[in-house]
Amino acid sequence: MILILFLFGLLIAFGLFFILSDLLHLPYLSTARAMLNTTKAEKQTARSMETYLMTWAVKFSQYVRMDEYKKGRMQNILKAAGMNMTPEVYQAYVLVKSGAVLIGIIPALLVFPLLSPLILFLAVMVFFKETGKADERLKVKREEIEGELPRFVATVEQELYNSRDILSIVENFKKNAGDSFARELDILSADMRSSSYEAALTRFEARLNSPMLSDVVRGLIGVLRGDNSVVYFQMLSHDFKQLELQRLKAEAQKIPPKIKVFSFIMLVCFLQTYLAIIVFEILKSLGSMF
User: For the whole model, what pTM was predicted?
Assistant: First the structure.
């Protein structure tokens, strides 16, 4: 009986979904998936469930209201993180995805009520996870770029002895940079060609909001203004090398706990071996006595 009720509810849900899709004039799955793939910076194909959720998010985004400060901040974060969508669509997607999980509480109340608190907790977790996804992607991207800044600063320091053409330095380094930093330098070089160099560097700094990148941009703007920034980049290169060593030491400190776990497992294995030998000898001596 419970199985029949569950199947009945599932069929009703699918029927209501298709009726609402027709009434709201939602696009077909293939069309929505193609549109969603164009908004992704990464070369990943959108999944069917993600496509449906994004389609509903676009519909509900017109009802989302945000203040100008929060909207501007979220727009900068989404752009820097490579998520080509508006803040309203992003907020609507978070609500739709967590709401889709929360809908599962209805069949849970009919079939297994004790499961409903777990579904509620899962919906809250999905909400907070999706809300911080843009910040998390931006953090990962910022760390990747900051890892390449010491090499970039050292290159600028060497290039300044021969040339003060910032655009040429950026384009030459872009050929050997990582994917994230290469994309940002590509945007920077295109921006520098279409506008003033100083304004392009300022926008480059604002996109990532990194203290290390701010120091680099400050030095590059000084070069554009005619300052002799060789000594500045020498000192900056030394400071960045120290920060890189501290980062590597912090990563190295995370390794010993893992080693201790395996050492403890090896110790337990050795103890078991010795105990097995001792027990075997004791049993052998007892057998010879009897």
Answer: 0.64
Residue 285 pLDDT > 70, yes or no?
yes
Longest dimension (CA), the chain: 100
pLDDT at residue 54 in the model: 79
Q: Tell me what pLDDT residue 45 has.
A: 42
Cβ atoms within 10 Å, residue 133: 15
* Distance (Å) of CA 203 to CA 79, 138, 207: 12, 16, 6
Q: With 70 as the cut, is the pLDDT of residue 248 above it?
A: yes
Helix (H, G, I), strand (E, B) or coil at 39: coil
DSSP at 114: G
pLDDT at 122 over 50: yes
Length of the chain in terms of residues written: 290
Burial 16-29 (b: 16+ CB within 10 A, else e): eeeeeeeeeebeee
What are the tokens at 189? 């070089």
* Ranges assigned E (strand) in the chain: none
What six digits make up the tokens of 180?
Answer: 């994230």
Please tell me what DSSP assigns to residue 177.
S
